[in-house]
What we know:
Mean pLDDT: 97
Structural class: mainly beta
Order of helices and strands: EEEEEEEEEEE
Shape: globular
Low-confidence stretches: none
Strand content: over 45%
Number of helices: 0
Amino acid sequence: VQLVESGGGLVQPGGSLRLSCTASGFSFSTSNMRWYRQAPGKEREFVAVIDKAGARTNYADFVKGRFTVSRDNDKNTVYLQMNNLKPEDTAVYYCYAIIIGIWGQGTQVTVSS
């Protein structure tokens, strides 16, 4: 049972990244999925959530209009498309499976010129 994130990296302000989180070992399509992030010296914070069918989403105010969460249940994968990135978006990004309460290992996103 695990979640594996990928897609992080170094990007300039205003750039884009797409994070992926691939699940295994549980019924992915039955779980709402969340993205969180944790910046150095700060607590982990909620970023986005998507329901199990991919029909409903919700976002933290600080990413609304810039980030989009989606999923492909055939691929057991949830995505986070991040556009117009800002230096304050620098953090380790984690996905979280609500139905069984597990976290991925995280992927580092660094926004810097």
